[in-house]
Amino acid sequence: xxxxxxxxxxxxxxxxxxxxQAYANxxxxxxxxxxxxxxxxxKYRIVAYGDSIYxxxxxxxxxxxxxxxxxxxAEYLSALWNADIESVRxxxxxxxxxxxxxNKIVGEASYMQATNTRVVTFEMCGNDGLQARSxxxxxxxxxxxxxxxxxxxxxxTYVAAAMNYINANAYSGVKLKVISNLYYPGYNADNxxxxxNDPTTGAKVNLRDKFLPSIAKMxxxxxxxxxxxxxxxxxxxxxxxxxxYDSNGDGQxxxxxxxxxxxESEASYVTRITSTLKSTLRDANTHFVSSSSSYDYIQSDxxxxxxQGSTVTAGLFGGSSGTGAPRYTSFSGGKSPxxxxxxxxxxxxxxxxxxxPAP
Length: 359
Description:
Blueprint lengths: L1 E2 L9 H12 L2 E2 L2 E5 L7 E8 L1 H4 L7 E3 L3 H13 L2 E10 L3 H10 L10 E6 L3 H12 L3 E2 L3 H24 L6 E5 L12 E5 L6 E3 H23 L2 E3 L1 H6 L12 H4 L8 H11 L10 E2 L5 E2 L11 E2 L2 E3 L6 E5 L18 H10 L7
Parallel strand pairs: 3-17, 4-6, 4-7, 7-9, 8-10, 9-12
Antiparallel strand pairs: 1-15, 2-6, 3-6, 5-16, 10-11, 13-14
Helix pairs in contact: 3-11, 4-6, 5-6, 6-7, 7-10
């Protein structure tokens, strides 16, 4: 079964009310799925902490995508290491960065302390950005930009804290630590004027033009802190927002040109994203893999990544665990046949590019 859009399920009104209340206060969506490779009983673990992205949120409060990005990566690891790989996703849909840090990374540190853990990954800050965007969109009168600045500051604080904590507490045999940064959901929808007026010019501002620098700053510090603290940075922004061909004739594939460059300054990165290469940014609902072919990376909620495959129980009825054979047992050129056709497949492939050759 192929899922490209969010699922809509009719349930009794009472259940809807309970679900809405639960989600309003964030929703744990924990899943453990083991890629069971034939001919081996050796098992290693990848642990993923995050919010609704790593959770595989699909619009349901009781289920989530089986193949969200960390489990996609588990398939690549299984083939590379010829081993069974347990993908442990400790995720909380709706959680801001402080919540992911305190209640998942710190509160559930035991999952990355298991002696078979080889990869630890996390993502956060998306809900900080979404909440700041919602707040700003509701403003009238004189614009107050502090909500955007606060989101950036909180993101920086908890990304750095998360890396420090993982470095100090993960099992000593972990071979890879990696963060995934933020794509920009609603890029096209935000290309409208604000309801408030700039305090200096008195004019309305373009929402997208105002939000993009904030997202760029968050992403810069995710990758820069990764460089400083021994992590890798999976640049989801570049992979989602840039086409996989050279659309502007500068001699570079767009999704490569947009990537964070290790050691560059924040000012350089932000200028490149918001000005120099801004014309190459595209809404991830239409991700071009060539000049004539595109795929939808975002579900119909205009927020969460699309995915391939079935779902697993995750949410109001608790988490779940399961085991299954890999969809693909080998990867020509390090890529599955659908590596660039769904949002989660693309993010999972991005994670896999940092995999150490041996566990």
